[in-house]
């Protein structure tokens, strides 16, 4: 008999696909991954699915994460990121399942200096950030057995239909030897989908609840991230042209401190550069 029956939504995205691949390696897990085939904004569809899958853990990776798209499509952004989370939280509680909700550093404004812990009060400025924070609140209110995992600058492999992430954007420019602009004033902590999936995996059998920050340690600018990718992939680092972006004026950065992780000592996140190097090496071998 399987130890865990796990339902992963958004299973064809960056993190969802990494989680499915990782968790299916463990024969103790029965993993079901859904994407567009189950509309999480439809409460009836979610309730039907929960009755069929009977999970004891629901991991919600489904999200509209394109910030510019969210600004132009507010109703759709809130429908998926907030209403979808609400539906999954209510349905998971009905079968006494733990819910793990994936969230983002964009629930913070980026207007204050220093690293932000799980105990700092969110103040989202964008539609994307506001919709994800609304989703967090629904999960907290509707399912007491919840974990909210916030991360930043998540990169990694996904299926071909997935939207290009910054890592792929840089690699594609390196392959084609095409110069591109990389902001010098956007600061964050790049985090691979693989290492984030590994952290989530370690939470499955723990009696931990609440909010966890889960970003790689250290920080860099988008330009530093881009040049590191190019160098490790063997491409010309001069292709990344540093510039200061107008849209970032007044915004310092959003840096997550993995305080809960360190207090509970359940996982240690690697330094961002070390993880980037390991990720590239692993995928070169593949």
Provide structural commentary.
- The chain is an alpha/beta fold.
- Helices cover 41% and strands 19% of the residues.
- It contains ten helices and 14 strands.
- The protein has helices at residues 14-23, 43-53, 67-72, 74-94, 127-142, 166-176, 193-203, 222-233, 259-264, 272-285, and strands at 4-9, 29-34, 57-60, 98-104, 115-116, 146-151, 154-155, 180-183, 187-188, 191-192, 210-213, 220-221, 240-243, 255-256.
- The strands form five sheets. It has a six-stranded parallel beta sheet with strand order 2-1-3-4-6-11, with helices on both faces.
- Helix 4 (74-94) runs parallel beside helix 5 (127-142) and helix 8 (222-233) runs parallel beside helix 10 (272-285).
- The chain is globular and about 55 Å long.
- The two termini are 32 Å apart.
- The mean pLDDT is 93.
Topology record:
Blueprint: E1 4-9, H1 14-23, E2 29-34, H2 43-53, E3 57-60, H3 67-72, H4 74-94, E4 98-104, E5 115-116, H5 127-142, E6 146-151, E7 154-155, H6 166-176, E8 180-183, E9 187-188, E10 191-192, H7 193-203, E11 210-213, E12 220-221, H8 222-233, E13 240-243, E14 255-256, H9 259-264, H10 272-285
Parallel strand pairs: 1-2, 1-3, 3-4, 4-6, 5-14, 6-11, 7-10, 8-13
Antiparallel strand pairs: 9-12
Helix pairs in contact: 1-7, 2-4, 4-5, 6-8, 8-10
What keywords describe this structure?
single chain, 286 residues, alpha/beta, 6-stranded parallel beta sheet, two-stranded parallel ribbon, 41% helix
